[in-house]
Design goal:
- By secondary structure, this protein is mainly alpha-helical.
- The protein has 2 domains: about 45 residues, no CATH class; about 110 residues, no CATH class.
- Helix content is about 65%, strand content about 10%.
- It has a 3-stranded antiparallel sheet, covered by helices on one side.
- The longest helix is centred in the middle third of the chain and has 32 residues.
- It is globular.
Amino acid sequence: MSLLLLNVLLALAWSALMGNFDPPYLLFGFVLGYFILYLFQKPPRTQKYFREVPLVIEFAFFFLWEIVVSNIRLTITILSPHPQLRPAVVAVPLDLKSEVGIVLLANLITLTPGTLSLDISSNKHTLYVHIFDLDDPEKFVKKIKNNYERRVREILE
Protein backbone atom coordinates (compact mmCIF):
# COMPACT_ATOMS: atom_id res chain seq x y z
CA MET A 1 0.00 0.00 0.00
CA SER A 2 1.38 3.42 -0.86
CA LEU A 3 2.29 5.73 1.99
CA LEU A 4 0.06 8.51 0.64
CA LEU A 5 -2.99 6.23 0.70
CA LEU A 6 -2.09 5.04 4.20
CA ASN A 7 -1.69 8.65 5.33
CA VAL A 8 -5.10 9.58 3.90
CA LEU A 9 -6.67 6.56 5.63
CA LEU A 10 -5.10 7.63 8.93
CA ALA A 11 -6.52 11.14 8.44
CA LEU A 12 -9.98 9.69 7.78
CA ALA A 13 -9.66 7.43 10.83
CA TRP A 14 -8.70 10.44 12.98
CA SER A 15 -11.70 12.41 11.72
CA ALA A 16 -13.98 9.42 12.32
CA LEU A 17 -12.70 9.07 15.89
CA MET A 18 -13.29 12.77 16.47
CA GLY A 19 -16.73 12.53 14.87
CA ASN A 20 -16.06 15.49 12.58
CA PHE A 21 -14.99 15.47 8.93
CA ASP A 22 -14.40 19.21 8.61
CA PRO A 23 -11.20 20.29 6.77
CA PRO A 24 -9.29 21.29 9.94
CA TYR A 25 -9.82 17.82 11.43
CA LEU A 26 -8.81 16.13 8.18
CA LEU A 27 -5.72 18.33 7.88
CA PHE A 28 -4.70 17.67 11.47
CA GLY A 29 -5.28 13.95 10.93
CA PHE A 30 -3.11 14.06 7.80
CA VAL A 31 -0.27 15.82 9.65
CA LEU A 32 -0.59 13.44 12.60
CA GLY A 33 -0.61 10.44 10.24
CA TYR A 34 2.46 11.78 8.44
CA PHE A 35 4.41 11.98 11.70
CA ILE A 36 3.24 8.52 12.80
CA LEU A 37 4.32 7.03 9.48
CA TYR A 38 7.63 8.87 9.70
CA LEU A 39 8.33 7.49 13.17
CA PHE A 40 7.46 3.89 12.35
CA GLN A 41 9.23 3.49 9.02
CA LYS A 42 12.47 1.51 9.12
CA PRO A 43 14.68 4.01 7.21
CA PRO A 44 12.37 7.08 7.05
CA ARG A 45 14.89 9.39 5.45
CA THR A 46 15.26 7.18 2.37
CA GLN A 47 11.53 7.04 1.60
CA LYS A 48 10.62 9.26 -1.34
CA TYR A 49 7.26 10.12 0.25
CA PHE A 50 8.88 11.79 3.26
CA ARG A 51 10.95 14.03 0.99
CA GLU A 52 8.07 14.97 -1.33
CA VAL A 53 5.35 15.94 1.16
CA PRO A 54 7.33 18.88 2.65
CA LEU A 55 8.24 20.00 -0.89
CA VAL A 56 4.59 19.97 -1.97
CA ILE A 57 3.52 21.90 1.14
CA GLU A 58 6.29 24.46 0.62
CA PHE A 59 5.32 24.78 -3.03
CA ALA A 60 1.65 25.32 -2.12
CA PHE A 61 2.57 28.18 0.23
CA PHE A 62 4.95 29.66 -2.36
CA PHE A 63 2.27 29.53 -5.07
CA LEU A 64 -0.41 31.07 -2.82
CA TRP A 65 2.03 33.88 -1.99
CA GLU A 66 2.74 34.44 -5.70
CA ILE A 67 -1.00 34.63 -6.45
CA VAL A 68 -1.54 37.22 -3.70
CA VAL A 69 1.43 39.35 -4.81
CA SER A 70 0.40 39.12 -8.49
CA ASN A 71 -3.18 40.11 -7.64
CA ILE A 72 -1.98 43.15 -5.71
CA ARG A 73 0.41 44.17 -8.49
CA LEU A 74 -2.29 43.72 -11.14
CA THR A 75 -4.86 45.65 -9.08
CA ILE A 76 -2.48 48.58 -8.63
CA THR A 77 -1.75 48.61 -12.35
CA ILE A 78 -5.42 48.49 -13.33
CA LEU A 79 -6.53 51.15 -10.83
CA SER A 80 -3.77 53.61 -11.68
CA PRO A 81 -5.10 56.62 -13.63
CA HIS A 82 -2.59 56.32 -16.49
CA PRO A 83 -1.22 52.78 -16.59
CA GLN A 84 2.00 52.37 -18.53
CA LEU A 85 1.51 48.81 -19.76
CA ARG A 86 4.27 46.89 -21.49
CA PRO A 87 2.70 43.60 -22.61
CA ALA A 88 5.06 41.06 -24.12
CA VAL A 89 5.48 37.45 -25.16
CA VAL A 90 8.55 35.84 -23.62
CA ALA A 91 10.19 32.57 -24.66
CA VAL A 92 11.15 30.59 -21.56
CA PRO A 93 13.65 27.76 -22.19
CA LEU A 94 12.63 24.58 -20.39
CA ASP A 95 14.76 22.08 -18.50
CA LEU A 96 11.78 19.89 -17.64
CA LYS A 97 11.69 16.61 -19.54
CA SER A 98 8.35 15.11 -18.52
CA GLU A 99 5.15 16.18 -20.21
CA VAL A 100 3.37 16.23 -16.85
CA GLY A 101 5.95 18.69 -15.50
CA ILE A 102 5.68 20.94 -18.56
CA VAL A 103 1.88 20.96 -18.42
CA LEU A 104 1.93 21.63 -14.66
CA LEU A 105 4.36 24.52 -15.14
CA ALA A 106 2.28 25.99 -17.96
CA ASN A 107 -0.90 25.77 -15.87
CA LEU A 108 0.75 27.31 -12.80
CA ILE A 109 1.93 30.23 -14.91
CA THR A 110 -1.55 30.66 -16.37
CA LEU A 111 -3.14 30.59 -12.90
CA THR A 112 -0.88 33.43 -11.76
CA PRO A 113 -2.66 36.75 -12.51
CA GLY A 114 -1.01 38.80 -15.24
CA THR A 115 0.56 35.87 -17.09
CA LEU A 116 -0.73 33.37 -19.62
CA SER A 117 0.99 30.34 -21.13
CA LEU A 118 0.45 30.53 -24.86
CA ASP A 119 2.26 27.60 -26.45
CA ILE A 120 4.96 25.00 -26.08
CA SER A 121 7.43 24.54 -28.91
CA SER A 122 7.17 21.32 -30.91
CA ASN A 123 10.46 20.01 -29.45
CA LYS A 124 9.20 20.83 -25.90
CA HIS A 125 12.23 22.97 -25.09
CA THR A 126 10.51 26.40 -25.01
CA LEU A 127 7.39 27.73 -23.32
CA TYR A 128 5.89 30.94 -24.68
CA VAL A 129 4.34 33.14 -22.00
CA HIS A 130 2.35 36.34 -22.38
CA ILE A 131 2.89 38.79 -19.55
CA PHE A 132 0.65 41.76 -18.85
CA ASP A 133 3.40 44.18 -17.82
CA LEU A 134 7.05 43.28 -18.46
CA ASP A 135 9.97 45.25 -17.05
CA ASP A 136 12.93 43.00 -17.85
CA PRO A 137 12.65 39.81 -19.97
CA GLU A 138 15.79 38.21 -18.47
CA LYS A 139 14.54 38.83 -14.94
CA PHE A 140 11.16 37.30 -15.82
CA VAL A 141 12.77 34.19 -17.35
CA LYS A 142 15.03 33.84 -14.31
CA LYS A 143 12.01 34.11 -12.00
CA ILE A 144 10.13 31.38 -13.89
CA LYS A 145 13.19 29.10 -13.99
CA ASN A 146 14.31 29.60 -10.37
CA ASN A 147 10.94 29.81 -8.65
CA TYR A 148 8.44 27.76 -10.65
CA GLU A 149 10.37 25.31 -12.82
CA ARG A 150 12.90 24.39 -10.14
CA ARG A 151 10.15 23.55 -7.65
CA VAL A 152 8.14 21.54 -10.19
CA ARG A 153 11.29 19.61 -11.12
CA GLU A 154 12.07 18.89 -7.44
CA ILE A 155 8.58 17.48 -6.89
CA LEU A 156 8.14 15.48 -10.08
CA GLU A 157 11.60 14.32 -11.13
